[in-house]
Amino acid sequence: MTGTRSADARWMQGEAAADRQQWSAAEAAYLDALALDPRHLPSLIGLSTLHSRQGKHVLAHAALMRASGITPPHPGITYGLAQRLRYFNEFAALERCLADSRFAETAPVHVLARAVVMLSSIGAHEAAVKLADRAVERDPNSAAALYVRGNLHLFSGEPELAELRYEQSLKADPRLYQNAWMLASVRTQTPESNHIDRLRKQLSEATPGKEGEAYLSYGLHKELHDIGDHVGAWSALERGCRVKRTHVSYAPDEDEALVDQAIATFDAEFLRGASQVEQAAVPIFILGMHRSGTTLLERMLSGHSNVADAGETGAFDAQVHLAADRHYANHFDAAVLARVRGMDIDGIARGYAKSADWLSRGKPFFTEKLPMNFWNIGLIAKALPQAKIINLVRDPMDTCFSNLRTLFAGVATYSYDQSELAHFYLQYRRLMQHWLDVLPGRILQVSYDDLVAAPEVVGQHVAEYCGLAYQSSIADVSRSSGRVATASAALAREGIRRDRGMVWRNYEARLAPLRAGLSSFYS
Question: Which whole number is the average pLDDT over 179-190?
Fold first, then answer.
């Protein structure tokens, strides 16, 4: 006990030094604490966080892995450990960490709600539901718990229950405006049944320029669009985009330069060799622009009895982070690209194989539906030669307008300005053309229009490419089983929709910058 108290004291000194950005002093204090107690979790978490702040990603991961097998002594440490495990995409360890019954019974309910989001984000749906239900049981008036439980109902195809939870959450906290935004998406609104008047009132009460104004504006756009008020819908969308753009950082020139660098780095000669590390399950990477039909195709493939749907995991990026000793958000940066030719490709493959054990849920195939993996195609092909890579291609205006009217969480920072959106789309197409040129035969191009027009035919073609025997369940996207945890959650269960194209025509007069940016596709 004395050793633990002494370790606690040194850890506290380390935390204070880290707050002052005195890195050497903080590291010394954490190491002193661990010398006194090698299993001192706060110090291992602190050391991992310190190394991340210093840009030492591999050391940060190593410290965290020392911590991952230790049972946290109280819920605050459990949550701190869980945050770090999510940062590193250590899915199995994260699920084990948050399965601790003491955490569910003693952590503050608002902390449980955040933990539910973490579990849901990695596809641990059953664990997320269990924890969310316990959170609501402990505090039936917790707006945060009711909101996340509503999301899980929506992801599971239970829209009525989702609506109930969102309404309960709004009642508990009228300013938790995410509920109003999600309520708009649960179903197609009608002139007789909608939330438009309430949304307008909420907008008048929201703090200008804050995230709440964006949620409400996008929700109002969706509902006005549903009832055919395109003038009002555009005004709401324009307002939402304007607010959201002030909350994100995006530099178009950086992405253009990054594509140039990727094309130069991943030439045909570099891509000629590939890892020989075996993968127990075959990953099917479904990628492309957001809103291009990736969720629909994943929904189709997950209907096959031999395919698990892993969702949007970031599992491959996690291995690239370690190989580059650098963490990045959403897609690699110039510094990571500069290190590609020195990366341990077999190490990426081995690390991914460990993640795949959890992602595949014991099935021989699993989907990795992360649209932005189109940046990673060169590394995927080199590290995982057995992987299947499918790129969804949708009409450029349809794709980009769908991006424009979607409120994303932490991704697609290019999508709130028409000119920036068009520019990003051009970079995506330019990089994809490079991959097709240097990796002939590796990538299956799937047309979204063909997919919705002839799902059975395209489904058979996709199954053949993946090495699967076709099953009729692939085309049954309206089935009740499975979960969909993306912006397309409600739409993905409505069956094959053939009326989703050309929606932008309702707003054509307002989309001149987007149309001009994409003019090369329509000449």
Answer: 97
Q: How many CB atoms lie within 10 A of CB 21?
A: 10
* Amino acid identity at 126: E
Residue that has been written with the tokens 């949620």 in this structure: 215
Structure confidence at residue 493 (pLDDT):
45
Tell which residue, 430, 458, 64, has the closest CA to residue 257. Answer: 430
> What is the tens place of the pLDDT at every residue in 11-68?
999 999 999 999 999 999 999 999 999 999 999 999 999 999 999 999 999 999 999 9
Looking at the chain, the number of H-run helices and the number of E-run strands are: 26, 5
CA angle (410 as vertex; 354, 418 as ends), nearest 5: 130
Tokens of 36: 């006194």
pLDDT of 4 strictly over 90? no
Strand order in the sheet with 307-309: 307-309, 365-368, 282-288, 388-393, 443-447
Token digits for 452?
């919705």
Mutual angle of helices 143-155 and 159-172, in 10-degree steps? 170
Angle at 166 between CA 161 and CA 171, to 5 degrees: 125
- What are residue 368's phi and psi, to 5 degrees? -120, 95
Is 314 within 8 Å of 329 (Cβ atoms)? no
Task: Determine the Cα–Cα distance for residues 250 and 211; give it in Å rounded to an integer.
Answer: 17
pLDDT at 2: 54
The pair of structure tokens assigned to 280 is 């127990």
Label residues 466-486 b or e (16+ Cβ within 10 Å = b): bebeebeebbbbeeeebbbbb
DSSP character at residue 224: H
**Whether residue 491 has pLDDT greater than 60:** no
CA dist 26 and 33 (Å) reads: 11
Rg (the chain; Cα; Å): 24
388 by DSSP, 3-state: which?
Answer: strand
Q: Does this model's pTM top 0.85?
A: yes
- Taken in order 130, 93, 79, 150, the sign of the CA dihedral is negative
Stretch 316-320: mean pLDDT, rounded? 97
Phi/psi for 237 (5° steps) reads: -65, -45
Query: How far apart, in Å, are the Cα atoms of 403 and each of 85, 324, 329, 430?
Result: 30, 31, 19, 19
Q: Is the pLDDT of residue 148 over 80?
A: yes
Mean pLDDT of 248-276: 96
